[in-house]
Design a protein that fits this description.
heterodimer, A: about 110 residues, 7-stranded mixed beta sheet, 4-stranded antiparallel beta sheet, B: about 120 residues, mainly beta, about 55% strand, globular
């Protein structure tokens, strides 16, 4: 199975901050990397697929980059509604696997 | 609008089985695969398997092989996930999620773009 490792596991940031979350795959997954946002008690919501493609309706402050084994999710200017947990997920091969999540908290 | 509506919360005893439903609407049901993902309290998301809603083919995570069965009823536009021999570690929120595909050159990339709200399954004696 492909292991997905995110860093950091949690971070504290202020509104307006630039936030970067990294995700590393245990083997190359090309660009088969998706990012999801999950708020407490809610289902995950797709933010970015194919490593860097926006989903309709997702604010442009979210961006993704990377290929192979190393990927990044960036929030250019953190907004109050962005406080949540973020997961990366590979769809290169089954079983699809997720990172452990990065919880973004208010400083 | 596209939505997935899941069945309600379940409480089961160890050793029992649970069957969760996921009714799809707002799109041609057989066009997309349906995946099942679970999340135990405080844990990461865990992929369980998927079904090709068109032909019924399935693929399961090895972790659940032999205990999980995913089926679909095309006339009811509903997918089902049954988990047997339940144990306390199966206590979790179970989600269905529609998979979509993006074609880039000759390669297909898949992602889960629509999710149900989740079904809480509690296993307790």
């Amino acid at each position: 199975d492909i292991q997905m490792t995110q860093s950091p596991s949690s971070l504290s940031a202020s509104v307006g901050d630039r936030v970067t979350i990294t995700c590393r795959a245990s083997q190359s997954i090309s660009s088969s990397l998706n990012w999801y946002q999950q708020k407490p008690g809610k289902a995950p919501k797709i933010l970015i697929n194919v490593a860097s493609s926006f989903q309709s309706g997702v604010p442009s402050r979210f961006s993704g980059s990377g290929s192979g084994t190393d990927f990044t999710l960036t929030i250019s200017s953190l907004q109050p509604e962005d406080f949540a947990t973020y997961y990366c997920q590979q769809s290169y091969s089954t079983p699809w696997t997720f990172g452990q999540g990065t919880k973004v908290e208010i400083k | 609008q596209v939505q997935l509506v899941q069945s309600g919360a379940e409480v089961k005893k160890p050793g029992a089985s649970v069957k969760v439903s996921c009714k799809a609407s707002g799109y041609p049901f057989t066009r997309n695969a349906m995946h099942w993902v679970r999340q135990a309290p405080g844990q990461r998301l865990e992929w369980m398997g998927w079904i090709n809603a068109g032909n019924g083919n399935t693929k399961y995570s090895q972790k659940f092989q032999g205990r999980v069965t995913i089926t679909r009823d095309t006339s009811a536009t509903t997918a089902y996930m049954e988990l047997t021999s339940l144990r306390s570690e199966d206590t979790a929120v179970y989600y269905c999620a529609r998979a979509s595909r993006q074609l880039v050159g000759d390669f297909s990339y898949f992602y889960m773009d629509v999710w149900g709200k989740g079904t809480t399954v509690t296993v307790s004696s």
